[in-house]
Request: fold
Amino acid sequence: MAVMRGAFTVIGRHRRAYVVLNVVFYGLVVCGMVVAAVNPALQQSLIESVRSSLAKGPLAPLARAYKEGNVLTAMLLTFLVNLAGGAFLSITVP
Reply:
């Protein structure tokens, strides 16, 4: 709990920077959503990229397991992908 208290103390001390960063970040997210919503060519490009990566990319076995209804295989592969992506790439690499 002391770690959380320390984090909130830092946020409280730098409230203006925290608010500005949040407004910028979420503003960019909203701008991206609007651009994607009004640009059908961009939508198609994104959809095709996702389909391609699920068909031939590293996530193809996972997509195949879901499509074929192999629940245990899908669970295991989802766990491994999340473990690799969540733990290794976002914690260890930085």
In short: The radius of gyration is 19 Å. Residues 15-38 form the longest helix (24 residues).
